Amino acid sequence: MSSPATSGDREKVVSKLPGWLRQNLKVRSAQHGIEIQSAVEQGISAWTALASGLDTVDTAGADSFATLLPPGQWDVFKDTAKQRSVSLTQGLAQAVQLWLDRNPAPDIERPVITRRFVVCNQKGGVGKTAITAGLGEALAEDSNSLHPVQIAKQLADADGEEDPLGVENLPGLGLRVLLVDFDPQCHLTNQLGASPLPMDGDSLTNHMGGTPKGDLRDLIVTIDEERFGDRLHLLPACNDAFLLDVRLSGVRAREAALERALAPLEAGYDVVVVDCPPSLGLSMDAAVYYGRRRESEAPGQSGPLVVVQAEDSSADAYDLLTNQIEDLRNDMGLDMDYLGLVVNLYDPRRGYIATSSLEGWMDIKDPRVVAIISERKEQKEAVRMKRALLAYAPKSQIAVGMRALAREIS
Ligand SMILES: Nc1ncnc2c1ncn2[C@@H]1O[C@H](COP(=O)(O)OP(=O)(O)O)[C@@H](O)[C@H]1O
Ligand SMILES: [Mg+2]
C-alpha cells in the first residue's frame, strides 16, 4: 500500500484517504496556513504517541492519497498500526481526524470598530458599483471552503497576462458585510437582484434628512447565495436619493448625516461598503466623512477607495475628487486615510494609453494601487443575470482579482 521514494529530505508515501477527509484536511491546513504534508505529519506523530487507538473512522470509498513525510515516520506508523490491529487506511484516517480535532478552524478576526469602505469617483462608468459588489462578496465568502485568489505576483508584473501560477486556493474571509447603495440610480440594488425601495416608504434619504419612518434595519435584504451564508446584506437605494443634496442642505451637521443613519446598524457588521453616486455634492461629503478615521481606530482601516480607469480622462476626475476630500479633511480637521486606488477595466491590448496611465497611477504611491482589475465579460453577464459576480462566475479571472483586492485592503 505504501511505496517509499525520497523527495528532498522527505519520503513519499502513497496510501488511501476518503474524499471528505481529504477535503477537510485541505481546507483546514489552508486555514492554518500550513502545508497538507505538515498537517499529516503532525497527525501521525500525535496518533502514534497515543496510549491506545481511537474510534473507527468511516473509510468507505477511500482512494489514493500521496504525501511526503519525514524519513522513518511511515515505518513507525506502520508498526503502530500493526500493534493496534488497524489497517493503514484506518490508521491514517484516524491520524488525520485527530489533527483536525486538535486544530479546529480558527475564529474569524473581526475588527473592533466596523470598517467603512467608501467606493467613490464622481466619474460614471468607471466601475464603482462593480467593485463595491465584488469586494463585498469577496469579504463575505465562506471561510470553510477554498476559493481561487490572484496572488500579489501579478500586481507587481502588471502586464495583465493571465498567469495560472499566480492563483492560489485560500479560505474565504467570512466577514459580515453590509453593502450600501448610496446612488439614486439604484444600480447596485438592481444588479444584485433586489428591488429599489418605493418612493412613498422609508429610505436612507429619510434617515439622513431627519425624517425616518421606521428602523433602517427593516429595509435591509440578504444576498442569498450559499457561499455568503447569511453574511452579505444590502441596504437598497430609492430614487428619492436624487433629492438628497437638497434635503441635506437644511440638515444640521450634514457631513455627519450618513454616519448618524448607519451607526445604529454597525454592530451587526464587520465591514460597511458604500457605493457612491457619480457626483461631488453634499452626499459625497457625507460619504467621505463616514470613512474618516475614528478616535481609537487604527490608520488604514477605513476610508475612500477610489476606482479609476487606465485612461487620461480619469486623471482629471481624480484631481477633482481628491481636492474635495482634502478640503473636507482640512476644513473639519479630519483624520482621513485612503484605502487605495483600484485601476479597473484594464486592458493592456489598448496599448500605450493604457500602460502609461497605469504607470501614472502606480507612481502616485499615496494612495497606492491596491488592485488592477481587467475588463472581463463575466462582470457584464453577472449584471445581466442579476446575480452576485462571485456566485455567478466564482472561478473567473475577475472574481479571482476581486478576492485579491479584498485581501489587499482587509
Ligand atoms: N472589470 C470589468 N469588466 C467588464 N465590465 C465591467 C468591469 N467593471 C465594470 N464593468 C461594467 O461597466 C459598466 C459600468 O460599471 P459600473 O460599476 O456601473 O460603474 P460606476 O458605478 O462607476 O458608474 C457596467 O456595465 C459594469 O458591469
Ligand atoms: Mg455606480
Can you list the ligands bound to this structure?
Answer: adenosine-5'-diphosphate, magnesium ion
| Number of helical elements | 16
Rounded to an integer in angstroms, the radius of gyration calculated over CA atoms is: 25 Å
CATH superfamily heading of the largest domain? P-loop containing nucleotide triphosphate hydrolases
**How far apart are the first and last residues' alpha carbons, in Å?**
45 Å
Q: What is the level 1 CATH name of the largest domain?
A: Alpha Beta
H-E order: EEHHEHHEHEHEEHHEEHHEHEHEHEHHH
Which segments are poorly predicted (pLDDT under 50) over 5 or more consecutive residues?
A: none
The share of residues in extended strands comes to: 15-25%
Return the average pLDDT rounded to an integer. Answer: 93
Known CATH architecture of the largest domain? 3-Layer(aba) Sandwich
Query: Helical percent range?
Result: 25-40%
* SS-derived structural category: alpha/beta
Sheet bearing the most strands, described? 8 strands, mixed
Report on this structure.
- The chain is built from 16 helices and 13 strands.
- Helix 5 crosses helix 16 (397-409).
- The strands form three sheets. The protein has an eight-stranded mixed beta sheet, with helices on both faces.
- The protein folds into two domains: 5-102, Arc Repressor Mutant; 115-409, 3-Layer(aba) Sandwich (Rossmann fold), CATH 3.40.50.
- 40% of the residues lie in helices and 17% in strands.
- It is α/β, with parallel strands linked by helices.
- Adenosine-5'-diphosphate (ADP) binds next to helix 5, strand 12 and helix 14.
- Residues 124-130, 187, 278, 344-345, 373, 375-376, 379-380, 383, 398 line the site of adenosine-5'-diphosphate.
